[in-house]
Amino acid sequence: MKINKTSALIAAAAIALAAILPMFISNNYHLNLMIQVLINIIIVVGLNFITGLTGQMNLGTAGIFSMGAYTSSLLATRLGINPWICLIAAVGMGFLIGMGLGYPSLRVSGVYLALTTIGFSEIVRILMTNLTGLTGGALGVTGIPPFSILGHKFQTNKEIYYLYLVIAVILIFNAYRIVNSKWGRAFLAVKDNPDAVEAGGINIASIKILAFTLAAVYATVAGSLYAHYVGFINPSAYNLEYSINYVVMLVIGGIGSVPGNVLGAILVTLVPEFLRFMENYYWLVFSIITLLFVIFMPNGIVSLFKGKKKAAKAGKGAQANGR
Which residues on adjacent β-strands are paired with residue 149? Predict the structure, then answer.
């Protein structure tokens, strides 16, 4: 119970910090980075369900993200539908993609599943580029309207940040509840010992499909938020490198941990920006830093905090035995 209270206090402090931070930032570029951090957090928290918990490698995040972005933007620009309804449609697209990618995971795994998701992402990118009549091709979709509530449009970076912060907090809280529920334990069990899980009467097929669906829904929601924020999208950015970037966030923060996902998304989004002063060498330095993290902290940054908790418990246990 004490640990739960401590976690709740840390979460409340983090939300409070995130809420007051824009009050001290007037630079639009920095606010843009903060909004990108929120979008990346949503994607990584979703990716954690399939790659972090069930151990199924998903390298199709770019394709799923772009499907959410294009679904929402095309409905808004071509049919004039309210952006909030477009966001709901993106959620529906996430369910369809999750079901579609979930079934192949029942037959293939490991590198074969990774290749399947890469293939899906590339097919999506090629279609978005070549279906010029529908998607605008390489020129993309322009004039995507922002979200609005009661006639008020969220147009400034500060307004958009606060709107997206609320959405991100809700999705993070939902992910945390799932990870610490029977579903989260089932996801982990499928990764650790699928044979024992099946022998225990749990349907592995439904668990894998559920994990893929959750990951896809989070990614399509993020895609929709991104499209309505920037007001323009094109397929050129949604490549394999884009997908790998989110796996790096997952690994650096801590696989399987929602707080670790948040930390990983923040670091991998902001650190390259802090290294821009190195000009042409900044990406090389960041890659070296990433490699060092993988070697010396394979369980992610969150493992440092877990180690401290274990040490604190061991200390209390030793004191109790001494008495």
Answer: 152
| Among the listed residues 6, 301, 307, the one whose alpha carbon sits nearest the alpha carbon of residue 315 | 307
The 8-class DSSP code of residue 156 comes to S
The pLDDT value recorded for residue 298 is: 81
Quote the CA–CA distance of 79 and 283 in Å, as a whole number: 41
> Would you tell me the crossing angle of helices 61-78 and 240-253 to the nearest 10 degrees?
120
- pTM of structure: 0.89
SS3 for 72-131 is: HHHHHHHCCCCHHHHHHHHHHHHHHHHHHHHCHHHCCCCHHHHHHHHHHHHHHHHHHHHC
- H or E segment and range at residue 44: helix 28-47
Under a CB-based contact definition with an 8 Å cutoff, are residues 54 and 185 in contact? Answer: no
Q: How confident is the model at residue 306 (pLDDT cuts 50, 70, 90)?
A: low
Which residues have a Cβ under 8 Å from the Cβ of 181 and sit 6 or more positions away?
none
Amino acid at 67: M
pLDDT reading at 167 higher than 90: yes
Specify whether the CB–CB gap between 141 and 70 falls below 8 A: yes
Asked whether the beta carbons of 72 and 46 are under 8 A apart, the reply is: no
Length of the chain equals: 323
Report pLDDT for 315.
44
CA distance 323 to 305: 27
The answer to whether 44 and 264 are in contact (CB under 8 A) is yes
Average pLDDT over residues 203-209: 84
Residue reference for tokens 């020129």: 139
Buried b (16+ CB within 10 A) or exposed e, 16-49: eebeeebeeeeeeeebeebbbbbbbbbbbbbbbb
d(CA 145, CA 136): 17
Q: Give the pLDDT confidence of 31-63 residue by residue, as tens digits.
A: 999 999 999 999 999 999 999 898 888 899 999
Reference 209, options 185, 183, 243; nearest CA is 183
Q: 3-state DSSP call for residue 279?
A: helix
